[in-house]
Write a structure and sequence with these properties.
CATH class of the largest domain: Alpha Beta
Oligomer: single chain
Strand content: 15-25%
Number of strands: 4
Strand order of the largest sheet: 2-3-1-4
CATH topology of the largest domain: Alpha-Beta Plaits
Helix content: 25-40%
Radius of gyration: 19 Å
Number of helices: 5
Order of helices and strands: HHHEHEEHE
Number of domains: 2
Distance between the termini: 18 Å
CATH superfamily of the largest domain: Lrp/AsnC effector binding domain/regulation of amino acid metabolism (RAM) domain
Shape: elongated
C-alpha cells in the first residue's frame, strides 16, 4: 500500500458511494488507476466497501458493549457463536478482565435482556458478562 491507496481509502471512508471517476478527479489520477487499485485492495482484503446504517432508523433502539469472560478452552467456540448472532455488529478477542468484547444493536431493552439471559447465558464456557449500555454514539464506522 502506498500514499495513493491510503488517499483512496480516506475518500471512500467519507463517501463509499463516490464514483471512481470522482475519486480520480480529486486525486488527479486516471479513473482506470483508481478502479485497478480498488479492485486489488478488495482482492487482497485490504478494503471492503459496505453500508453502515443508523440502527435507530432501522428499528434497533438499544446498543451496548458487552465484556465476556470465557473458559480458555471455549474461546473459539464462544467467539464464533457470538460473531454469528444477528445482533452483534463487532466482536473482538481481548486481553485484560474480559476475553471477548462485542457491540450489539438490539430492538429494545427487553430484547437485550433476552440476549444476555437466554443466548449468552446459555453458551457453554461463558463465565461472566458485563454490559455497558450506550447512551449516545459519538462516532460510527471507521
Amino acid at each position: 500500500m502506498d500514499k495513493l491507496d491510503k488517499k483512496i481509502i480516506e475518500i471512500l471512508k467519507s463517501d463509499g458511494r463516490i464514483s471512481n471517476s470522482e475519486v480520480a478527479r480529486n486525486l488527479d489520477v486516471s479513473e482506470g488507476t483508481v478502479r485497478r487499485r480498488i479492485k486489488l485492495m478488495k482482492a487482497e482484503n485490504i478494503l471492503s466497501v459496505y453500508a453502515v446504517p443508523d440502527p435507530k432508523k432501522t428499528g434497533y433502539n438499544a446498543e451496548a458493549l458487552i465484556g465476556i469472560q470465557v473458559d480458555p478452552n471455549k474461546l473459539e467456540e464462544v467467539g464464533n457463536a457470538v460473531s454469528n448472532h444477528e445482533y452483534t455488529t463487532w466482536v473482538s478477542r481481548t486481553t485484560g478482565g474480559y476475553d471477548i468484547f462485542t457491540w450489539v444493536t438490539i430492538p429494545d431493552s427487553k430484547e437485550l435482556t433476552n440476549f444476555l439471559t437466554y443466548y449468552l447465558g446459555n453458551l457453554e464456557g461463558v463465565n461472566k458478562t458485563e454490559t455497558f449500555i450506550s447512551l449516545e454514539v459519538l462516532k460510527r464506522g471507521l
